[in-house]
């Protein structure tokens, strides 16, 4: 009787390890397919999106990025991205990730929603304990052919 229980338990363990290995292979395949997407970077821009809309071009593709004149910590503010040269069917998603140079501020990404040809959303930034207010906005446009990326520097006001 103990032999039957032992072999049944052993079978369950071996089957579980096999299925887990199969799962990891499939999962890694999906990750590698995502990583294989071509990353296409727009040329860098010295534009400050709070002063004027920032515009970057790559061949016939154009990305314009808007921020309000003043963005404050811990308060939602609108972000807007306009894309030209892309067909609506081609764009899978548009997101914006906020980073700080040499400071880990956690994962802060906003998935933008398309409305009347504009990609928009609301962002809220955390307060940096060092007092820094210089941020980097990384905009990603995912298409079937690859991922387009643009980067813009901006500052956040501590007080109104």
Classify the oligomer: single chain
- Based on Cα principal axes, name the global outline: elongated
How would you characterize the largest beta sheet?
9 strands, mixed
Rounded to an integer in angstroms, the radius of gyration calculated over CA atoms is: 23 Å
SSE order? HEEEEEEEEE
CATH topology of the largest domain: Immunoglobulin-like
* Strand numbers in spatial order across the main sheet: 1-9-8-5-6-7-4-3-2
Tally the beta strands.
Answer: 9
User: Can you tell me the CATH superfamily of the largest domain?
Assistant: Macroglobulin (MG2) domain
Strand content: 35-45%
**Contiguous runs where pLDDT drops below 50 for at least 5 residues:** none
The span between the termini is: 77 Å
What's the domain count?
2
**What's the rounded overall pLDDT mean?**
81
Number of helices: 1
Question: What structural category arises from helix and sheet content?
Answer: alpha+beta
CATH class of the largest domain: Mainly Beta
Helix content: 10-25%
Q: What is the CATH architecture descriptor of the largest domain?
A: Sandwich
Description:
This protein is α+β, with helices and mostly antiparallel strands. It has two domains: 1-36; 38-155, Macroglobulin (MG2) domain (Immunoglobulin-like, Sandwich). It has one helix and nine strands, in the order αβββββββββ. The protein is elongated, with a radius of gyration of 23 Å. The N and C termini lie far apart (77 Å).
């Amino acid at each position: 009787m103990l032999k039957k229980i032992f072999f049944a338990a052993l079978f369950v363990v071996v089957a579980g390890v096999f299925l887990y290995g199969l799962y990891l292979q499939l999962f890694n395949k999906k990750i590698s397919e995502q990583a294989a997407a071509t990353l296409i970077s727009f040329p860098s821009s010295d534009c400050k999106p709070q002063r004027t809309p920032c515009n970057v071009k790559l061949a016939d593709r154009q990305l314009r990025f808007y921020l309000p004149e003043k963005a404050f910590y811990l308060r939602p503010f609108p972000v807007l991205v306009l894309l030209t040269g892309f067909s609506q069917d081609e764009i899978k998603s548009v997101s914006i990730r906020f980073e700080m140079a040499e400071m880990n501020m956690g994962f802060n990404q906003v998935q933008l929603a398309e409305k009347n040809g504009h990609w928009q959303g609301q962002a809220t930034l955390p307060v940096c304990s060092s007092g820094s207010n210089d941020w980097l906005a990384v905009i990603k446009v995912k298409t079937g052919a690859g991922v387009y990326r643009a980067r813009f520097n901006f500052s956040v006001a501590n007080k109104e």
